[in-house]
Each structure stands twice: as structure tokens, then as C-alpha cells.
Amino acid sequence: MSLEHQQNLGLRERKKAKTIASIQMHALRLFSELGYNETTVEQIAEAAEISPSTFFRYFSSKEDVIITDNYDPLLISAFEDQPSHLTPLQAVRNAMLSTTSDMSGDEMSTTRERNQLVMSVPELRAATLNNLTDTMHMIAEMVAKRVGRDPGDLQIRTFAGAVIGVNISVMLHYAENPNENFSELLSEALNLLETGLPL
């Protein structure tokens, strides 16, 4: 793949991620004003100035607006760009921080509001767990490829599970402490994991 093709792919993925973030931002505002159960897909589409069919190009349902995180392709690309001398955890940390540092203020606000909504709606908590399990498998595959191991290896899965656990703890902390810096929290938490979580 040429550098130009990679850059175009990255731009497309970033544009798609920003469109998704915009729809989520409008949806969250409506959820706050009208209530989650009372808000319709049509209302979200109208607020985001898109058609319902465009909405369904990005999301399969209203629930999906909250649990979808379109930064996975960006994370994979950033991870694959990490220098080979870094440990898998250092490479994951750098990749995660590079994707969060590129988020706008609106995107960070949307992330925090999504986390807060997930915490308050039981159906969304359950759906988010499925989504995080998928992300754990993705991280296991990324890391396994980097170190030449099987993604089903217990050590690889444990590593991926630990990274997801850190991510969950940071998301919950950030939802409760919105004035803190998400990227700094994530970096600190992953550093704790790297040092063996001394207590």
C-alpha cells in the first residue's frame, strides 16, 4: 500500500469518525433534553441534518449511537505504526494516546456524555460490555500479530483484557470527573499497568 493511499485511508477514517461523533453529539443532547427512551431516530437525524437512511449507514439502532466507537481503525493504524523496539504495552499506549489526543473538545465532551449515559441505562451497560469484548479481541489480534503469537493464547488474551480493564476504569473515572484530562488519565493508568499496579 502506497503512503498516499495510507494517508487517504486515514483521512477517510478520520472523516467518518468525525461524522459519527457529530451524530452522537446531537443524539446525546436530545437524550438529555427528552430522555433516552423518548428520543427517536428521526429526531436524531433531523437534529444532525441528515436523513434517517444516512443515520442507518453509520448506526444499526438508537442503542448503537451510544455504544459505537469508530476509532478502532485509527487505533489499529496507529498501533501498526509504532516502532518495533517498543514493548506491546508501550505500543498500545502510544496508539491509544495518539487517537485521543486528536479528538476535538466536542468529541471529548461526547465521549464523557456517552460514558455517563451508559452508566445510567442498564440496557446500554450490557450492550457496551459486548462492544468492549469485541475491542478486546481486536487488541489481542493486533498484539499477537506483532509478537508472532496466537490471538487465542492465554497470555495474549490476558494482556488484552488488562488493557480493556484499564480503559473501563478510565472511562468511569472520567464520567465522574469531567474536568480532568482524559488523555492524561489514560496515560497514567496504562503506566500503572506497566509498572505492575503497585498499591
TrEMBL record:
Q: Which residues cross the membrane?
A: none
**Residue ranges the UniProt entry marks as DNA-binding:** 40-59
Give the HTH tetR-type domain ranges: 17-77
Q: Annotated Gene Ontology MF terms?
A: DNA-binding transcription factor activity; transcription cis-regulatory region binding
InterPro entries hit by this protein: Homeodomain-like_sf, HTH-type_TetR-like_transc_reg, HTH_TetR, MftR_C
Q: Which UniProt keywords apply?
A: DNA-binding, Transcription, Transcription regulation
One Pfam family cited in the UniProt record for this chain: TetR_C_14
State the source organism's domain of life. Answer: Bacteria
What's the protein name? TetR family transcriptional regulator
